[in-house]
Write a structure and sequence with these properties.
With about 325 residues, this protein is α/β, with parallel strands linked by helices. It has two domains: about 120 residues, 3-Layer(aba) Sandwich (Rossmann fold); about 170 residues, Dihydrodipicolinate Reductase, domain 2, CATH 3.30.360.10. The chain is built from eight helices and 15 strands. It has a nine-stranded mixed sheet. Strand 5, helix 4 and strand 6 form a beta-alpha-beta unit.
Length: about 325
């Protein structure tokens, strides 16, 4: 049985707790929220011991994995400390606010010989997995262009002040739009060479953008567009299209997957599921257990998660300086 200590026992940690309840071989040992009352409430609801501070998790020998669901700017220090204490780490996206921090997290995990998994949830959704499988099979040919979008209500009930400040890793793109970016980069299956971008605060008075439009140039010459929009109030749009040499692939985690070819759309059977997010989180934990047990490699590498952050950093520069900016790649070695 793998014991989990939760650093940041709040809204999304509760989603993880529900997923873990359905995964044999994993249990919640301890949880630390931002305050004692929050920790106690979480432990009462989902089990485990309430901790006053995340550092207590590292003193508990029953904790094998630390789940990091804290504000973004705390991901790196907690993940590094957990790795140095010999704990495996599952950290929510974004891996960290900067590529430098992402690299430091990876190196700490590698030095300690522990697993570090970043919860890029789109890669664990049934729709995403089926889309990736179809593209890998090659029947549609090489992906040449992609469009991905995340448009949602920004100031929802779980929004916190740290989401609204640059120094704490806030902003719509780093918080939510990164899902659309991840799907695009993953399905195009090519590194991003450079980006151009525009950004603004169109719906809210805040220090970080609620709207970003990004153009991506991939290393093989392929092109893509990304829309990350935090509305005041609207129905969510969360979809991706990939144009290949032999057809168009359209996916939406709620409605499934379709192929456009020869003037018509054909639905792909078995590519959508109820409660997709919960099922995807269950797959994340199954992947972590498989890695710990030595039966499979982690399906999301630190480099893949870190390169998304590098794209977002470059997009910020591109928007500010109104020019195309090269994306810094993951360091070799």
């Amino acid at each position: 049985m793998i014991g989990v200590g939760i650093a940041g026992a709040g809204f999304f940690a509760a989603q993880h707790a529900q997923a873990m309840a359905a995964v044999p071989g994993v249990r919640i040992v301890a949880a630390a929220a931002g305050d004692a009352a929050g920790s106690a409430a979480f432990a009462a609801a989902y089990g485990g011991r309430a901790c006053a501070d995340w550092r207590e998790l590292l003193d508990d020998p029953a904790v094998d994995v630390v789940l990091v669901t804290t504000p973004h700017h705390l991901h790196a220090p907690i993940a590094i400390a957990a790795a140095q204490a010999g704990r495996h780490v599952l950290v929510e996206k974004p891996m960290a606010p900067t590529l430098t921090e992402c690299v430091a997290m990876h190196r700490a995990a590698a030095a300690a010989g522990v697993h570090l998994l970043v919860g890029q949830i789109s890669r664990f959704s049934l729709t995403g997995l089926r889309a990736r499988e179809l593209l890998t099979q090659g029947s549609l040919g090489r992906p040449l262009w992609g469009r991905s979008a995340m448009l949602k209500r920004w100031m929802e009930s779980n929004r916190r002040p740290w989401h609204l400040a640059r120094e704490t890793g806030g902003g719509m793109l780093l918080t939510a739009g990164i899902h659309a970016l991840d799907r695009l980069v993953w399905l195009m299956d090519a590194p991003v060479a450079s980006v151009a971008a525009m950004a603004g605060n169109l719906f809210h008075d805040q220090k970080v953008p609620d709207v970003e439009q990004v153009l991506l140039r991939f290393a093989g010459g392929e092109l893509g567009t990304l829309s990350s929009v935090g509305y005041r109030d609207a129905t969510m749009v969360n979809d991706t299209e990939i144009a290949c040499e032999g057809g168009l692939l359209r996916l939406n985690t709620e409605t499934g997957l379709s192929i456009g070819r020869e003037g018509r759309w054909t639905e792909v059977p078995g590519a959508a599921e109820p409660a997709w997010m919960l099922r995807a989180l269950e797959r994340e934990w199954l992947a972590m257990l498989a890695a710990i047990g030595g039966t499979a490699a982690l399906p999301v590498s630190a480099a893949q998660a870190g390169e998304l952050v590098a794209c977002i950093e470059a997009a910020g520069v591109a928007a500010a300086e109104r020019r195309e900016v090269e994306v810094v790649g993951w360091p070799k070695g």
